What we know:
The structure holds 2 protein chains of 2 kinds.
Chain A: H1 2-19, E1 27-34, H2 41-62, E2 69-76, H3 81-91, H4 107-120, E3 124-125, E4 143-144, H5 150-165, E5 175-181, H6 184-187, H7 190-200, E6 203-209, H8 217-226, E7 230-234, H9 239-250, E8 257-259, H10 266-269, E9 280-283, H11 292-300, H12 318-341, H13 349-357, E10 360-361, H14 363-369, E11 378-379, E12 392-396, E13 401-403, H15 412-430
Parallel strand pairs in A: 1-2, 3-4, 5-6, 5-7, 7-8, 8-9
Antiparallel strand pairs in A: 9-12, 10-11, 12-13
Helix pairs in contact in A: 2-12, 3-4, 8-9, 12-13
Chain B: H1 13-17, H2 23-45, H3 47-52, H4 55-82, H5 90-107, H6 113-132, H7 140-160, E1 173-174, E2 179-180, E3 183-184, H8 188-209, H9 213-223, H10 225-230, H11 235-262, E4 264-265, H12 272-285, H13 290-317, H14 324-345, H15 350-363
Antiparallel strand pairs in B: 1-4, 2-3
Helix pairs in contact in B: 2-8, 4-8, 4-11, 4-12, 4-13, 5-6, 5-7, 5-11, 6-11, 8-11, 9-11, 12-13, 13-14
Amino acid sequence: MLRNFRLSALLGAAAFAVAGTAYSQNEQFIPMNGYWVGPYAAGGSGIFGGFIDYLNMVNARDGGINGVKLTYEKCETEYNNARGVECYERTKKRGPTGASLVHPLSTGITYSLIDKGTTDHVPIVSIGYGRTDASDGRVFPWVFPLITNYWSQNTAKIKFIGMKEGGMDKLKGKKIVNIYHDSAYGKETIPVLDAQAKKYGFEVTHIPVAHPGNEQQAQWLQIRQIKPDWVILRGWGVMNPTALKAAAKIGYPRNHIVGVWWSGAEEDVIPAGDAAKGYIAAAFNVSGNNYPVIKEIEKFVYAKGKGEMEDKSRVGSIYYNRGVVFGIISTEAIRTAQEHYGKGKPMTGDEIRWGLEHLSIDDRKLKQLGATGFMQALKVSCMDHEGGGSVKFLQWDGAKWNTITDWIASDQSIVRPMIEESAAKYAKEKGITPRDCSKEG
Amino acid sequence: MLYREAGQFKTTYAADQQLFPIRQDRIGMAILLAVVFVGVPVAAATPALAGMIDFNYWFSGVLIPFLIFSLAALGLNILTGYAGQLSLGSAAFMAVGAFAAYNFELRVPGMPMLASFILAGVVAALIGIVFGLPSLRIKGFYLAVATLAAQFFVVWALTKFGWLSNYSSSGVITAQKLVVFGYAVDTPVKRYLLVLAIVSVMALAAKNMVRSSIGRAWMAVRDMDVAAEVVGIPMVKTKLLAFAISSFYCGVAGALYAFAYLGTVEPAGFELELSFRILFMIIIGGVGSILGSFLGAGFIVLLPIFMDLSAASIERSFGLALPAGLVSNLTLILFGALIVFFLVVEPLGLARLWQIAKEKLRLWPFPH
C-alpha cells in the first residue's frame, strides 16, 4: 500500500513538473473545459470535437491567426460545477497570455464563472446557453451569451408558431404547453412565455419534468387533457426522446412539438425511433457537411489521419457543427482583437474582450469563412452581448434534420426590456455601476 | 522510538482528558496547523515559489473545495458514523445553508457575514430536525429512504418558491461579497484562510463533542439502540440532536460552498449525486472518525483532479494523441477501481490505515 502511495506521489510530482513546460511565445491558448463522460457526453464530445477540429484546421491551413498558433488543452468537467471551476482555475494562466476565453458549456458552470472571469479578466463566452440577462453588456462586460439567448429563441419560436397558424393575430385563444426540464435551465423561459401569452392572447401551461426526465407519463396525460395546439419542449439529454415517445403514445402530433436547440440534435431523436418523425426544433446552426467550412476541416484534418471524432460519421452532425460555430466565433474574436491591437501577437484577456465586443461577422465574412447558411451574421456591441438573435427551424424526417425556415428574427421589443430589468436588478444586488456604452472605444 | 508515550505521566484529570493525550500528537497537530495557517500563505507570498507553483489555482481550485467537502463529510460522519443514522440528505442541508445565508445577507441590512453563516447552520439544523423525526420510528435503509425525502423536497422547494432565490427567473442565486469584520475577503488566499479557520474550529468542536456525554450517547445508540434506551439514554433527544448538529455542519459547509467557492449556485447543483459523494467520502475515509472525513474528502475531491492532471501530462510527455473520450473514461474507470481496491484492502476506511500506522510506529524499530 505504501509503495502504491509512493508510486502515485512520484507520478504526481512528474505530472506537475511537466505541467509547467515551456511554451512558445507566439501562441494563443484556448482552454477546452468540456465533458467526454457522463449523461451529456454526446453534447460535450461533439461540440468540443468540432471546436478543436476547427482550430486545428486554422492552424494547418493558415498557420494560425496571422501567424499566431492556436493551442488548447482539454479538461474534463463532467458537467459538474465544482469540477468546472477547478478546470477554469487550472487553465486560466496557461499559454503566454493566459486563457483567451472560456466556453463553459454548462449553464451552471457559466453562472459560477461570471464573478471569477470578471475578476481575472477572462471573457466567459456562452453560446446558446448561460445567463440570459448577461446580454446587457453594460452590467456584464466579461460575459458574452452570443448568437441567441433563451429568451430571444423563445420569441422566435412563438413567431414560428404564429407563422404556421397564419399570422400572429391567430394565436389568440390558442393553447400552448411548455414542458420543461425542472432546473435553472428549464425554468429560464417561463417569464418570457408568460409575457408573450399576455401580448398575443394565447394560453400557456408550464409543466415541469423532474431530472433526468425518463418518466413522463403523468405529464403527457395532463397534456392530453389540455389538448394544446402546440407543445414547446424544453428538454435536455434523455428527457427529449422520452418526451417524443410519450407523445407518440398519447397520439399527440409530433409536428406540433417545437424543441429548443438542446432538444434538437441527432442524439435526441434517434433513440425515439419513428416516434420522432416530424418533430421540429429550433437551431442556431444547421446540420450537414455540405458547407465549405466542413469540407476544409475534412481536407486539412481528417484527410491527414487526424481529427477529434472517433466516429467520423458525426462530422457534420448538429453538435459537431455547433462546435465549429464556437471555433469560428472564438478565432474571429481573436482576429478582431489582433486587427486593433497588433497583428501576429498573442492577445490578452482584455484585448480579446474588446475583440468580442467589436465582433462583426457579416454576410461577406460568412462567405469568406465558408459558412453561408451555416450560421447567422453577427454584430456584437457594448450594449448588446448577444449579437444575433435569429434561429432557423429544423424538422426531423426520420433520418436527418431538414431546414424548414430561413433565419427567423427574435422579438427584441419583448426580450430587451426584460433583459435590462433583470440585469439592473442584478447590478443593484451586487453593487455594480453599469458602464456607459457611449464612452466605450 | 519517536512515537512512544513512555515517560509522559499524567498528574491531573485535565491532563488525562485533553484532546490529544500524547505529546507527539500535540506537536504534530501544532506543526500541521502552523503549516496550513502560516506556512502555506507565506509560501504563496514568496515570489520565488509563487513563480513555480500557481498558488491561486491551488487555493481556489483544490484546497478550498477540499476543506468545504471535509466539513460536509464531517457533518455526515457525526450523524452516520457516530450516531448510526444513515442519511442521504447531506446535499439538501448544504443547499439550505447556502440559500439561508444568501437570504439573511439579502434581507437583513448590515448582517455580519459570520452571523449569517451561523444562522444558515441553524436553519439547516431546524430542517434537519424535521427530517430526522422519522428516525424515531425507523432505522437503517428505511431511514435512508426517508432522508431521501429531504433531498428531493429541499431542491423542489428551492425551485418552486421564488422568494427563496429572490425571484431569479432560473432559481440561481449569486452570493454577496464576502466581508468579515469589515474586511473584504476577496483574494484566493484570504478565502482559503477564512474557510480554513471555520473548518478548523468546527473540526475541533466535533472532536470534542464526540468524546463528551453527547458523543458517547450517540455511539451507544449506534451500537445498540435498545440497550442505550435501557440504560437511560433519551432516544428522542439524542437522535434529533445528531440530526441537528450534523445538518448544522452541512449547512455551514453549504454556505461556504456558495460564498467562498462557487459564488453562484443553483438548486440543481445540490442533487442526490452530491449526497452520494459525501456518503462515499465517509465510507472511504472512515465511518466514525473525524480524521476519516478529511481523508475521504481528499480521496473523492482530489484524486480525480490529480488523475486528470497526470493523464494530461503523461499524454503530453509521450506525445500521445489519445482519442478524446478515452482519457476521461479511463480516469473514471481507474477511480472506481481504486475505490473498490481501498474498500477491499481496508473496509474500515483510510482512517484505519492511519491508526495501524500509528500502532506500528509505537513499536518501531523493535516490533515484537
